[in-house]
């Protein structure tokens, strides 16, 4: 399980510059593969061999010039609730502002690690100016320049030192599927969970400090055994009904990272929107299985075409990863809930499957021979062998004489052929080409 680090602070102090620096290398790789840029406010970073997830909470309220203090406060409170550590960024050019003081006041009460980063310290002179930030009452601070990266090493050294040890996922001891139910506020997540497993299990117990860890609760319903990844977000969601992007993202991250399959609940009356897309992307990026439930289907006027049209519209939004089950359900009338559970179990199985090397080669090599990667500069590219790697989410490696010449469209072609020949519905898969 990864630690989650939240970057907070008022607009224009340099949060996203710093965030981009943290996730740089990895993001570049992801983007060149998918060619799609989605949520730019969540990513994974690594320092001294320790991996953690980073969220730039400010990214979600950007664009509003006259940002309300109340919004910053909510952003910080949410970060305090959901993150394992907080990096509070301030701007040495501006000095301490009233909003900084507000944020500091909230953070002083927090027992989680809080690191104060005084940004835009581009030169020695500004080192001197930074001293005033002691007055925020947060103790030692780190002077950084997000733009050049100077000072960030010391900050990150400290960060990974203070990050708490989290329990490792215990797949071995508990091999049941881990499902999480995600979606934006009011989509019907808790109604779905309640309908599925019974009301009594989701009594809200809001005991400070006990709610932040993801907990697997074992269920046995309709003959299926599974764990529901029950997070603070689900249990305490009653507190937050506001439909803000960063709420659904912050509250989904830990659950998603901790699960095998994400059940994304969307509200049929609202359609598939930006927030849904970003949560979908979080699951995809984490290489989790995905099932989309279009909930509140009881409220939608139906003619014979509407399911198909609705489904097509969603598939368009989730391109290029469209091989995902989409079900039309109602938590209220309990329509197709069993089917939803069945599908989630199937996606779990799909994600877990290991294709035997002999079978894989038997099927894929003739396809590749028939349609080889296009020759580059008169050089022929040959793929002679392939195998699935023993990873938690499916990864395939194809050995070639000149892997560097194989382009993304061909990779997608191979992925599609894999999907046609084996059942990977709902499962992101990786295809690599390597030197044999
Ligand atoms: P955010 O709103 O907090 O995410 O801030 P941004 O990352 O968008 O940065 C706001 C402005 O500060 C931009 O014009 C950045 O180029 C600038 N900035 C960010 N980091 C530094 C830095 O280390 N030094 C200087 N001089 N400017 C910076
Ligand atoms: P959450 O914030 O995602 O957990 O959403 P809730 O489960 O609290 O549901 C939000 C609202 O939608 C509540 O008023 C529910 O009664 C209603 N709701 C949930 N599922 C359905 C459904 O399938 N059909 C209808 N008509 N209403 C639903």
TrEMBL record:
It holds the Pfam family MMR_HSR1. The keyword Isomerase does not apply. GO terms for molecular function: hydrolase activity. Residues 3-167, 177-352 form the EngA-type G domain. It comes from the Bacteria. GTP 2 binds at residues 183-190, 230-234, 295-298. InterPro entries: G_ENGA, GTP-bd, GTPase_Der, KH_dom-like, KH_dom-like_a/b, P-loop_NTPase, Small_GTP-bd. Associates with the 50S ribosomal subunit. HAMAP family: GTPase_Der (MF_00195). Belongs to the TRAFAC class TrmE-Era-EngA-EngB-Septin-like GTPase superfamily. EngA (Der) GTPase family. This is GTPase Der. It comes from Flavobacterium luminosum.
């Amino acid at each position: 399980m990864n630690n989650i680090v939240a970057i907070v602070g008022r607009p224009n102090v340099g949060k996203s510059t710093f965030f981009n620096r943290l996730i740089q290398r990895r993001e570049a790789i992801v983007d060149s593969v998918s060619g799609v840029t989605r949520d730019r406010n969540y990513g994974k970073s690594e320092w001294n061999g320790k991996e953690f997830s980073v969220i730039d909470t400010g990214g979600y309220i950007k664009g509003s010039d006259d940002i309300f203090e109340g919004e910053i406060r909510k952003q910080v409170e949410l970060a305090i609730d959901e993150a394992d550590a907080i990096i509070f960024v301030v701007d040495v050019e501006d000095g301490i502002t009233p909003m900084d003081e507000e944020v500091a006041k909230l953070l002083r009460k927090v027992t989680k690690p809080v690191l104060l980063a005084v940004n835009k310290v581009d030169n020695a002179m500004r080192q001197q100016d930074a001293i005033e930030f002691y007055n925020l009452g947060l103790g030692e601070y780190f002077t950084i320049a997000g733009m050049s990266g100077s000072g960030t090493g010391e900050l990150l050294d400290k960060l990974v030192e203070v990050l708490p040890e989290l329990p490792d996922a215990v797949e071995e001891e508990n091999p049941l599927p881990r499902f999480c139910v995600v979606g934006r506020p009011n989509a019907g997540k808790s109604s779905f969970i309640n309908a599925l497993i019974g009301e009594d299990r989701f009594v809200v117990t809001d005991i400070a400090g006990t709610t932040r860890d993801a907990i697997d609760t074992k269920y046995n319903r309709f003959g299926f055994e599974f764990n529901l990844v029950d997070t603070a977000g689900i249990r305490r969601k009653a507190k937050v009904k506001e439909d803000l992007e960063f709420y659904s993202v912050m509250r989904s991250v830990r659950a998603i990272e901790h699960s095998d399959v994400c059940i994304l609940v969307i509200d049929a009356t609202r359609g598939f929107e930006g927030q849904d897309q970003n949560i979908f992307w979080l699951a995809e990026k984490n290489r989790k299985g995905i099932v989309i439930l279009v909930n509140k289907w009881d409220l939608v006027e139906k003619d014979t075409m509407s399911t198909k049209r609705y489904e097509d519209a969603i598939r368009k939004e989730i391109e290029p990863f469209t091989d995902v089950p989409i079900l039309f359900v109602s938590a209220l009338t309990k329509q197709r809930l069993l089917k939803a559970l069945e599908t989630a179990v199937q996606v779990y199985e799909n994600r877990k499957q290991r294709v035997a090397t002999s079978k894989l080669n038997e099927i894929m090599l003739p396809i590749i021979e028939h349609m080889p990667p296009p020759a580059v500069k008169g050089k022929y590219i040959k793929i002679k062998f392939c195998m699935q790697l023993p990873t938690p989410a499916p990864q395939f490696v194809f050995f070639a004489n000149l892997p560097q010449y194989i382009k993304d469209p061909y990779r997608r072609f191979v992925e599609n052929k894999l999907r046609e020949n084996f059942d990977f519905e709902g499962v992101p898969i990786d295809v690599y080409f390597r030197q044999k």
